[in-house]
Amino acid sequence: MANKAKLEALLTLINTSARDAIALYEQYGDVPAIDQTEPHPLDNAVDQVALKSAIRTLEGACAQICATLAPPAHTAVNLVQVYDHACMRVVAREHVSDILLKYPKGLHVNELSKQINIEPKKLARIMRLLATRGCYNEVDMNVFANNRLSLILLDENPVKYMILFHVDIVAKGAPVFYETLKDPKIAYSYEPTVAPVMYAINKNGTEGTLFDRMARHDGQRQSYHTSMRGLNDIMGSLAVLTHFPFEKLSTVVDVGGGIGAFSLPLAKTHKNVKIIIHDLPEALVQARDIWARECPEALTENRVEFKNLDFFEQVPAKGKDIYYLRNIIHDWPDRETALILSNLRKALGPNSRVLIHDYVLRQLSRKQAVIEASELGVVSAPEPLLANFGVGNMRLYQQDMTMLFVHNAMERTLQGSLTLATAAGLKLEKVWDLVETCVLEYSAA
C-alpha cells in the first residue's frame, strides 16, 4: 500500500470508529460533550466491549496518523515533556473535584487557593493544563468548574484511588529506573524486593516487597483494595459477567479476591453462584465489613464465604466450578507465578475451569497477530494500523511498565501466559477477548 493510501485508510478508520462510538452513546441518550458536567449513562455500563473496541481503533489511528505527519522532533519531545501526572497528584490529593461540586458555575483560583493553601498563580497553571486535557472546564478566565472527566477524581470514586496509587507509589520508580537497569547487583534480578519502586523506597530503610509494605500500613492497604474496584471501570473488566456463562454455574472461587472488586458485582448479578473469596487475613477483615454494608443478603443467604489463603503455600478450596484470578498473575515474576498456578492445579476437579483475567500484550508482528486471531480468536488490528492497535492499546504496555516498576513483574504475551500455564498442567480451552483485557479459560490437562 502506498504511503498516501495508508494515510487515507487511517482517516477512514478514524471516521468509522468515531461514528461507531457516537452510535453507541446515542443508544443511551445524547452524545457527551467535553464540557459536560455530569456522567453519561454509558460511563457506568457493565459491558463496554463495543465502545472500547471503537475507541481502541480511534486512538490507534489518530496517534498513528499524527506520528506519521508530524516532524519527528515534535513527537519525540512530546513523549517526555509530560507532567499530567504531577498535576493530577495535586488535584487528587487536595480534593479539588469535591470542592468544585459546591460551585457548579465555577470557582476562581484565588478562592480555590484559599481552601487548599496552594499559591493561586501556580494553581491556575495546574488547572489550565488539566483543562486543556479535558479534565475540568475553564468557564471564565481563571475560573474552573467540574466536568464529566474531573468527576472521576471525586473521593467516592474508586478510580481516584488507582490514580493516587500511580502518582504516589508507581511514580517513585521512574526516577531510579535507569539506575536499577545498570546496578550490577540487581540489574538481572526479578526479585520483587528490588523492583524500582522498592529500590527508591529502600533508601529510607524500608525492606521487603510493596505488598509487605502495605501489610504494615492499614491506610495504604485499604486504599489499594479500594483502587482494585476502580479497575472495573478502567479495564471494563465486569463485561466478563455478561460474556461468560456464570448463570450455568454453582461455585466460583475468587483467588486473591481482596475486598470483592469482582465478587460483589458477581453476587449481585448471578445469585445462583456461591462464592469463596481467598486472600490474606488482613484483606478479608476489610472485605467482611464491605460485604456487610453493600451486599448483606449474600451473607445471610450463605452465598459468600471468606477463607484465608497464601496462594504460594496453600491449595485453594477443591473441586469448584470456576477459579477466577483477576490481575493476580501479573503481580509476580515467573517463579512465583509457577507456584500459584501449581497450587491452583491441585484444586481442580474434572469439570473445573480456571479464568485468568489480565491484560495480554499483543505482538507488533503482523504474522503473529494473524496466527493468534485465526487459532485463538484474538481480534487483530485492521491494516494499516500497527498490528497491536498501536496507541489504542497503549495502556497494556504502560501497565507492563507499572508491573516492572512496582513488582519486578510483567504483563505477558499470550504465548508467555500459555507457557507458564502448560508447565503447571493447565490446558487452554478458550480466549475471551474483552478488548482491553482477555480472559484465558483453562482446564486441567
From TrEMBL:
- Gene Ontology biological process terms from the UniProt entry: methylation
Q: Name one Pfam family in it.
A: Methyltransf_2
Domain O-methyltransferase C-terminal, by residue range, is 209-370
Task: Please name the GO terms that the record assigns under molecular function.
Answer: O-methyltransferase activity
The protein's matches in PROSITE patterns, at most eight in alphabetical order, are given as: SAM_OMT_II
Judging by the UniProt lineage, the source's domain of life is Eukaryota
Sorted keywords for this record are: Methyltransferase, S-adenosyl-L-methionine, Transferase
**Coiled-coil parts of chain:** none
What is the recorded name of this protein? O-methyltransferase-domain-containing protein
Q: Which organism is it from?
A: Suillus discolor
